[in-house]
Amino acid sequence: MTEFRNAIVRKPCRSIINGLTSASLGKPDYKKALQQHAAYVEALKKTGLNVLVLEEDDLHPDSTFIEDVALCTTACAVITNPGAESRRNEIKGIREVLQGYYEKIEEIVSPGTLEAGDVMMTGSHFFIGISGRTNIEGANQLIRILEKYSMTGSTISLEKMLHLKSGASYLENNNMLVSGELTKCKDLERYKRIIIDPEESYSSNSLWINGTVLIPAGFPETRGKIEKEGYRTIILDVSEFRKVDGGLSCLSLRF
């Protein structure tokens, strides 16, 4: 079972109101986003993590979704190459941050694109979503990197979801939340799947950390299903991040 010790987050910036989104939920409230982010950081600490908080980056509205710019494994870190053009410069400076934790740092290079919201770790195997943000070249680069460090990877093609982890979250102990198109994914049938109802699909992006599951507020059926499996839970309001297509996993790097 994975044990996490550290997390890296980045404060929301004022320009978050201009973040990329497919949602029709209005503009995020910057001050409320700051409050929700602070509560998120406290929740990470409650799970036993040491949290590094990076300052906001007003040049990049989506920069608080730091998960997308790097993949942190037990053996190496991988700097990604985001598929959204407006996000590609978010990787600047992340190598220097990761060098404080990792000796081995790899990277995805063009024409490969990869955002780590498309990467779901299940032990030493990583599922990689092929999406509008992650292409097959980026996925293949990542698979080669993983194999270099005695890990494995495989791809799952997405038709509707922004990222793979928009519709699936691994909760360890062979349990996995799944929703939408991923409920029909043959590659995930080896796991005990906890099917999330369509009206609560946003909560598919819940976050397991050291035995505790962080769940977005407002999804009682999902919470009940997770607690039925014996997990401790922390409920967090992330409404302002949802408005710009962000979820709980998006807001941190965990390793």
Q: What can you see in these coordinates?
A:
The chain is an alpha/beta fold and 255 residues long. The chain has a single domain (6-254), classed as 5-stranded Propeller (L-arginine/glycine Amidinotransferase, Chain A), CATH 3.75.10. It has helices at residues 30-46, 94-98, 136-148, 220-228, 239-242, and strands at residues 6-10, 50-54, 70-72, 77-79, 105-107, 119-122, 125-130, 152-157, 168-170, 175-178, 192-195, 207-209, 212-216, 232-236, 253-254. Strands 2-1-15 form a three-stranded mixed β-sheet, with helices on one face. Strand 6 and strand 7 (125-130) form a beta hairpin. The longest helix is centred in the N-terminal third of the chain and has 17 residues, at 30-46.
Write the layout of secondary structure elements.
Layout: E1 6-10, H1 30-46, E2 50-54, E3 70-72, E4 77-79, H2 94-98, E5 105-107, E6 119-122, E7 125-130, H3 136-148, E8 152-157, E9 168-170, E10 175-178, E11 192-195, E12 207-209, E13 212-216, H4 220-228, E14 232-236, H5 239-242, E15 253-254
Parallel strand pairs: 1-2, 4-5, 7-8, 10-11, 13-14
Antiparallel strand pairs: 1-15, 3-4, 6-7, 9-10, 12-13
